Amino acid sequence: MRVLVTEDDDNLRLALDAALRGAGFAVDVASDLPAADEALDVNSYDCAVFDRMLPAGDALPYVRWRRERGWTVPVLFLTARDSLTDRLDGLRLGGDYLAKPFAMAEMVARVRSLCRRSGTSGTERPVVLRCADVELDGGRHEVRRGGVLLTLTRKEFLVLERLMSTAGTPVSRQELLRCAWDEMAAPETNVLDVVIRQLRRKLHEPPLIHTVRGTGYLIGAPA
């Protein structure tokens, strides 16, 4: 499950990132609305966490603007504003509302609940992905080829899941790095190449993952 966290306080942003990663989420972070807007335009998320008051303004009108354009990702608002009106506005528009100060364990539990809600919306990717004789079950965190269960690391699973979500279409190196390592790995590092080699070895023959020069990788036959 992938989460976007938008928080301008550096220490709190780092704490939120660490707590969610520790609970098994893939996390992207932004410090203000313009960066969040860019991330939402290029990535898919199961949940978004927004501090209400950011340098560019209140996140509530921003989320309302996105909702009017069909954006349906559940949102958890974080704020020191805890009046009844504020809470009701956040619940109606976002999905959940958590007043500061809060326990990280409660924040993680709320994000997990929102992600589950997102997964039942019918607009998210299917729980089970298939390409040729490879089957990836996101709910069980299992991958099989030809019915044989494969043992993958978390990074390998995330990269394979991203490739299979758009089978036959190239996925850029930068997107694969964001999906599995978030912002912890620079695009020029070779960590992705290592994972791709491991995936190719574990998937056995015939090869399914192909290199697209100048772009990245794809799984299955090119579109």
TrEMBL record:
Keywords: DNA-binding, Phosphoprotein
Residue ranges occupied by any OmpR/PhoB-type domain in the UniProt entry: 126-221
BP GO terms, sorted: regulation of DNA-templated transcription
MF GO annotations: phosphorelay response regulator activity; transcription cis-regulatory region binding
4-aspartylphosphate modifications at: 51
Domain Response regulatory: 2-115
Protein name, entry field: Response regulator transcription factor
Lineage, highest ranks first: Bacteria, Bacillati, Actinomycetota, Actinomycetes, Pseudonocardiales
